[in-house]
Each structure stands twice: as C-alpha cells, then as structure tokens.
Records
---
Amino acid sequence: MLTIKLKPIGKKKQISYRIVVSQKGSKLKGKFIEDLGWYNPHTNKFLVAKEKVKKWIDNGAQPSGSIHNILISAGAIEGVKIPMHKKSKKPIEQASVVVPENQSAEPVQETIPAEQPVENSIPEQNQESSEQVSV
C-alpha cells in the first residue's frame, strides 16, 4: 500500500520535512517514489504540488494524519481536519459532592468583617536609653 507521508531532512534541532509518496512499511529516511513538496514546522509554511497529490490519491495512496491536515490547509483535498493530539487513556472522573441531609446544596456566602487600618507607628523607645549620660 502506498502512503503520502513526511520524510525528515535537515539538522537535528532545525528539522524540516519533504512530502513524499512511499510504501507504507518503508523507513522514514528510506527510498521514496515521488516528491510532492515540503513542510517547515518552525515557520508553519509548506508547498504542495496539488495536481500530483490528487493523482496519487486517485491511484490509491493514503495520506498520513499530519499530511491529511496539511493537504486540507493547502486546498488540495476537501474534508475535516483530523485531531492529532493523543487522547487520555484514563477515564475522566466526575467530582461528586456529598451534602448532609440537614444542609442545603446551595453555597453559603459568609460575611467577612472589614479589616481595620493598621497605624504605622514606631515603638516608643525608653527615654533613659535615648538620653546620653555625660560624666
């Protein structure tokens, strides 16, 4: 089966991709059948040969999820984008609140007394210690 997928090129921290047609089980950096364009994730720019993409899809090539979204953005194919983020395997638990029978479930607003302003005062020093004794 043929797929349209991203082939990584470039340096380790400055990677960009070629959009290629290759066998489904082939290595990422292996041989490919045809080059269809490029994609730079750092600048989010891409160039796609729309006619070649349509030809390969008509011949049975399946685009990967990321390529599917890029092709929709480019206008090469019609459809809805595929969410590429992973879904959590843990089920989301609903927080339940237990209310005793004698209390209501409505929140209670408490009145908080207004704080009294604090005076900026320096503690008074003993007069004896502040006076200098001369002998």
---
Amino acid sequence: MAQFLVERTTSLSVAECWARLTDWERHGDFIPLTTITRAGEGVGSRFTARTSVGPVGFDDPMEVTVWQPPEQETSGRCRIEKRGRVVTGWAELTVAPSAEGTRVSWLEDAAVRHTGRLLDLPSRVISARVFGRLVDRLLA
C-alpha cells in the first residue's frame, strides 16, 4: 500500500475547513478526469469517484466509516474506506484548531489491486502531489 500524508495550516475556521474538505462532489473539480457522485451524509454514506477518458475508466467507490464533525471549534475526523475493484485502502481527514487557525491533515493508504508493491512508490508520489493540490484548492 502507498501511504502518504498531506498537512496544511490555514486561517480558515475548523468548521469551514470541515465543510470544504467533506464536500465530496467538489473534489471532482480539482482531480483530473474525475467526477464524484454521493449518496447520503455521515457514517454509512457512500460516494464514487469516476475517473475516465471518454468511455474508458474506472469507479472508485468509497464509504464513510467514521464521521466526527467538529463542534464549537473542536477537532473533527472522517475516515473513508475504499471499496472498489481497482483501488483499495482508506483515507483519514482531520481538522484541528491551531494558533494560526486550523491544521488540516489528509492521511491516505491506497493501492491498485493486483499490482503488489510494484506501483507503491509512483502511486505515493503522484497521490501526494494530486491530493496536496486538492487540499490547497479546497481551502483557497
């Protein structure tokens, strides 16, 4: 599995960071060739990231397994399990108050099925870059 960590600090409030990071459909605005559809909110909700070029692509279905929104500027945490045939793993998003405003953390461990460790390094490098840009743009 290819684990990576994206961390940012912003002057936005904890609640605003949470709202932006968990607006799943908006992620598709910043991840190339990807659209996101969602069903529900909170624990048990599901969403699918469809990555494609024309008719060729794959679905990355995910389920929210932990949903702890921040309350009154406390920390918040969300865990997502990847349930797809192509991509497996999980992601944890946290927001926490800091002296500057809010500290955001996106920790993810994902792998492409049936590739073993072959794609771990390139996947880690590319994912860290893509999700770093995603977090930056969502918080901008």
---
Amino acid sequence: MAAEAIRTAGAPAALGPYSQGIKAGGWLFTSGQIPLTSDGRMVVEIGAATRQALENVRAVLAAGGASMKDVVRVTVYLRDMADFAAVNEIYATFFEVPPPARSCVEVARLPKDAAVEIEAVAWLG
C-alpha cells in the first residue's frame, strides 16, 4: 500500500519532519493541528484557538479529498482540562450528528505552547 503525503497552504506548514496529512488505504490521517494561522500567528483565546485548529484540520482534509463529514475519529489534546466545555462548544459546530468518536486528554505541553491540538482520521471509502 502506497502512502500519499497531503500538503496545503490552507494550514500551517509542518513544524518538523512530518506531513500535514497522509492518505493510505482509503483513510486520511491528519497530523495534529495547533491554532496557528497560515501566516504563523498563534491564536490564544481557547474558543478562537479551537476554531483555528479545526479550520486547519478542515484544510488538510480538503486537500486530501475529504470533509468533516468523513471524519470517524478525533483526538483533542488540551493544555488545561478546565477548557473542556469551551472546546466542546466550538467543536460541536464542526460536526454533524452523529459526531465522530473522540478522545480528549490533558497534556503537559504542546508545540509552540499552544492551548489545544487536534488530529483527525477520515474514511475516504
């Protein structure tokens, strides 16, 4: 099975030796997206940061031929679990019912000291 790297100017460039996304065997896997704008500005306020991270995920998905409707699994990494409700409020606006399966974990630190990082897995069929 050949893997195809996904790249888009609609999301921040990778900060290290990884792809924004990988398409393989009918699946599209996004790398974790932090709330960086495409011009490199970090979005700080948790609601706006969640929205930006999800917009970045959406851009990677689109570049790989998928949409938010194709997402079956999401992982959310939070710097502070106290932000859980605020993240959920924004997150819910990005997915239709039934929403994808999801895990949400608090972590000690994220790249560039981001407040949130979100990755997704989409089924391409």
---
Amino acid sequence: MSDEELYLFSSTNEVVWIEREANGDISIKPISPTLVAAASSDVAGELWRWLGDEGHGRLLAGAGFFLPDGSMFGPRIALVSPEKSAVIANREKDGFAPFAPDFVVEFNGVFDESGEMARKMERWIANGVQLGWLIDPFEKTITAYRPGAAPEEHVNPSSVQGTGPIAGFELVLARVWG
C-alpha cells in the first residue's frame, strides 16, 4: 500500500491496530484489551501532567508515524519535540507524521507474539527514537531502549526515571501495576 492508501485504510478501520513493516507487510491486530488500555491511559495521564508543567513537547496517543525505513508504526504513546509538533500543526492535510517521535511507550499485550514488541522497539530506535519504554503490565517489567545501548530491564520497579527527551520525568508505577 502507498502511504496515502495506508492512511485511508487505517482511517476506515478504527477498531483495529494497523501498521506497515519496512518490507510492505501489513499487520492488523485487535484493539487493546482492558489491562493494556488501562496501563496505557495511566502512563499517558502522568506524562500529560508532566508536560503541562514542563512544556517539553506534545503527547500523542495512537498516532501513526511514517518512518525513514518505509514502515508506518503507531505507538501506544509518543512524545514529539516542540519543533516536530510545529511540523504537524503546519501540515496542509491530516495524516501520519513524516518522522519518528522522540520518545515512545509500547506495551506487551495478549495479542503480541513472544519477542515481537522487543523487535519493534529496536526498529523504533533504528528509525530515530531517542528513548523507548516497553512496559509489560502482566510481568511488571519496563525495558528501556536507547540508541547505542543494550536494552535495560527493570523488574517490578516502584518507579522509573526518564532520560533524554523526558529527563526529569518520574513514572510512579503503583496505578500501572494495579
């Protein structure tokens, strides 16, 4: 599918999660189950509160991004810098953003194959994301991904500190794990 065809297909199928791999393969999954949706909302709420105070960019939930390798991914949560946010605001038509976000949060869910989300996080980083968190609400783990570094797993942490584009942010996990 071309970028425009993919956007149109996605816009008419809002009850599924649609992404495109760099090789053109299309992935279609059901919308999030309750636990993942609740965890995603809790994390987004904490980030939104922090951004309101700090003004480090714009928070996007479920938005699509056309990446440099030709893929189109939609993270559960993304943060874009003020400069990238201005690009979105100045676009003549709506559509998926033509760049990688600065920070992404993804969640392991019941519809994901083993290792699938870890591979996706590596592709996010390879396409320009500065920091990514993969949260598994079932296993109570957060794995941080950064360019040039091995993934860093935190098992059942009470909180996790942001770095890079979210330096100064602390995610307290009581609600997420609850």
